[in-house]
């Protein structure tokens, strides 16, 4: 299964799920949404999702609370134009949370 750019937001949304669904392994959650996906594709997806999270975290570490949300959204959207606005927001919020938790 080749992943069209348009599906990256769905893959990332599933990757970031919280609550009871978070207990289900990501490969199972992705298989529900993308039944034809292979294990190799899912490894690639995980890597891409981790790249998005790492980028948002690095922004939050570098700029801390001084970076306005609109500027952060713009930087994330420029780096990952396939993401829908709600996934950009989720990535930024998570990046800020972990940077705050880590003492940045």
Write the layout of secondary structure elements.
Layout: H1 8-15, H2 26-33, H3 39-63, H4 69-79, H5 85-101
Structural account:
The chain is 66% helix and 0% strand. The chain has five helices and no strands. The radius of gyration is 14 Å and the shape is globular. It has one domain (5-101). Helix 3 (39-63) packs across helix 5 (85-101) and helix 4 (69-79) packs across helix 5 (85-101). With 104 residues, the protein is an all-alpha fold. It starts with 7 loop residues before the first helix and ends with a helix.
In short:
This protein has helices spanning 8-15, 26-33, 39-63, 69-79, 85-101.
Notable characteristics:
about 100 residues, mainly alpha, globular, 5 helices
The count of β-strands is: 0
Integer count of domains: 1
Give the overall shape, derived from the CA principal axes: globular
Biggest beta-sheet profile? none
- Give the C-alpha Rg: 14 Å
């Amino acid at each position: 299964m080749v992943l069209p750019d348009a599906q990256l937001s769905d893959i990332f949304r599933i990757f970031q799920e919280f609550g009871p669904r978070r207990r289900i392994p990501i490969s199972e959650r992705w298989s529900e949404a993308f039944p034809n996906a292979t294990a190799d594709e899912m490894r690639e997806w995980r890597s891409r999702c981790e790249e998005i999270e790492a980028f948002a975290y690095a922004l939050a570490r570098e700029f801390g609370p001084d970076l306005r949300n609109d500027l952060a959204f713009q930087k994330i959207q420029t780096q990952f134009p396939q993401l829908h606005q709600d996934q950009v927001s989720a990535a930024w919020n998570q990046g800020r949370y972990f940077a705050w938790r880590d003492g940045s």
